[in-house]
Amino acid sequence: MATGKIYQDLLTMKRQNRSGFAVLIDPDKVAPADMIHLAKLCNDAAVDYVLMGGSLVVADNLEACIQRYKAESDIPVILFPGSPAQVTPYADALLYLSLISGRNPELLIGQHVVSAPAVKASGLEVISTGYMVIDGGTPTTVSYMSHAAPIPANKPDIALCTAWAGELQGKHIIYMDAGSGAKNPISKEMIHTVSSRIEIPLFVGGGIHTPEKVYENCKAGANIVVVGNAIERDPLLIRDLSQATKEARSTVK
Description:
The chain has helices at about 5-15, 35-45, 60-70, 105-120, 140-145, 155-170, 190-195, 210-220, 230-235, 235-250; strands spanning about 20-25, 50, 75-80, 95-100, 125-135, 175, 200-205, 225.
């Protein structure tokens, strides 16, 4: 199992039935100079983590964005890579994603073989991640790029069995994602079904736009709620979304 501080903190969240909030930043949609403002918003809102990455990353901004962000904030930066090229030692940790909901061998192991030397040399805390794409009601970049059909939104049993398979294979976390720009977020029923029956932390993202949905996801069992698309449109949402997580924490019994 992973032994780094970030993963140990995630395990503590899981064991204590607590939730955290992560902001997802796509380097294709921001400039390094934007990191100053985003870092201040995240600091003021006491965000737990910042995820950095995207499905494509056409603009070569990843390292510059991370360095600029870290100059302004101590909040851990975790890579959320869409390709082997998105590995840099300037982050704090890496979600090493295997698309366990699909049948594309490149995204199960192929790209990992290509990226392994860079990952080993990076010194990053590596968090093995069972990545599951859930149908969000509209085609998303991740479903298009992965050539994989998402798990049906009304099939929590399939999601659970997929998460179990990832857990039994030794994944450190499960990440259920409806994808950037999803029309429908993952249901609280699916989140609860998976979270209540796995022993590893659960990340949930995609289609989350309101504090109410963040709160609902936390109460359903998400250990980390990830929001990106909504914040791209309105960065000031960071405060309210993070506050919703804190309110959910305060009512955990």
